[in-house]
Amino acid sequence: MMRTYFFQFLTLLLSGMLVAGAQYLAPLAHAETAVELKAKISSKTDEIKKIEAEIKKYQEDLDVIGAQKQTLKTSIAELNLTRKKLEADIRATQAKVESTNFTIAKLGSNIVDKEGKIDSRKRALIEALRVVYENDTRSLLEVALSEDSFSDFWNDAELLNQFGDEIYSNVVELKSIKAGLEQEEKRRQEEKRTLLGLKTELGDRNKIVVDNKNQKSRLLTQTNSQETTYKKILKEKIALKEAFEQELRDYESTLKFILDPSLIPPRGAKVFLPPLDKVLLTQKFGKSDATNGSGQRLYASGTHNGIDFRASLGTQVKAMKGGIVLGSGDTDLACPGASFGKWVLVDHENGLASIYAHLSLIKATAGDKVVTGQVIGYSGNTGYSTGPHLHVSVYASSGVKIETRPSKSCQGRSYTMPLAAINAYLDPLDYLVL
Fold first, then answer.
1. Whether the predicted pLDDT of 416 surpasses 80
2. Cα gap 365→376, rounded to integer Å
């Protein structure tokens, strides 16, 4: 009787395992074999490598132009090269989308194969259990009174043991197949999330290309393709930037703030991860002694309230730590070319806040909850910037707030941006892992 209960229980257990496994099986087309899909994935991988080599060359050319004197000719050349690089970025992203689709299809094919194995095992186990169960229901007395000899009985008993071993072996293999099925499904869901991210990135990059083309058109229109006009506009832009900076310094120097060190992480705590996948620091916090190729200072004020990273137009910018987005905006709407341009401010809920500036595209708005490494924008050349890069400032969060103020230097317009007392600005390198 005990064995009967055991086999009934085992049957129910196997049924549960098979039902649980069936949840992973979605209808999947078998238009392409796993071998064909693998070949397509390999082909796309090679294509991506070639495009990335092309992107690298464009970036090298952009670095050369960026080091040259700023003229209308170099600005147009930089915009043209940037467009080509952005279009290559789009082709690379599209290839990644296609490769990911092939990977998802291949994983789906693997899942169908595993389900076929499970179904085959199911039929074999059910048949084995039926035979064992039928033999097990015969009592010892029935066997003794039957026409069968005791010799036949012991042969049957041995056969039952063999069936038991076969069932155990099949159960072990079935569990292994089911575990593999769960792992394949987990990978497929991860690839689907990757695909969603790539499709979003593709849309973002198309927007940045359109903006790049518009920027070139505006530049040609404003300058009438004349170098002298360009120089005049550049001079006016620098004057506006310096006047706006002075205006901000005058206001921020009046703000009262007492920094309580106990409310922020200690210096050297390294609580932030880099905001870019590839990091090259081009400007540190505080007084600037950087010079360009001609020996002129890069920052007229001689001070720097954050740090700068090299980042070509359209590079993904990521939150250095999770937190709540306090706000985002675009100072160019009020003072074109004078300040942060497009920016995002994040409160990290550990006493620190950070701003990401000169963006080409904003991907986070006030109230958003972001996690470490989440894309919150794309690097750009908005605001006052002599070339595409990422600016990052770090504040004691209790000492910074987003304000809207009328501007004296920007034709009486009002600007909206984060403002803080001078001593609320902190050195990002004290907290950043590099």
1. yes
2. 9
Specify whether the CB–CB gap between 335 and 409 falls below 8 A. Answer: yes
User: What is the Cα–Cα distance from 78 to 143, expressed in whole angstroms?
Assistant: 94
- Selection from 369, 358, 367 nearest residue 330 by Cα: 358
Compute CA 131 distance to the chain's CA centroid, rounded to the nearest angstrom. Answer: 55
**Mean pLDDT comparison of 76-80, 105-109, 160-164, 402-406, highest-scoring range:** 402-406
- Cα(312)–Cα(292) distance, integer angstroms: 18
Residue 395 one-letter amino acid: Y
Environment class of 433 (CB within 10 Å of its CB; exposed 0-12, middle 13-18, buried 19+): exposed
Residues in CB range of 161: below 8 A, 6 or more apart: none
Cα distance between residue 79 and residue 92, in whole Å: 20
The Cα–Cα gap between 124 and 118 comes to 10
Q: Residue 231 has which token pair?
A: 């120089």
Q: What is the distance between the alpha carbons of residues 225 and 227, in angstroms, rounded to a whole number?
A: 7
CB atoms inside a 10 Å sphere around CB 432: 21
Whether 420 and 248 have beta carbons less than 8 Å apart is answered as no
Q: Which residue intervals of 23-71 are DSSP H helices? A: 34-66
pTM of the model: 0.79
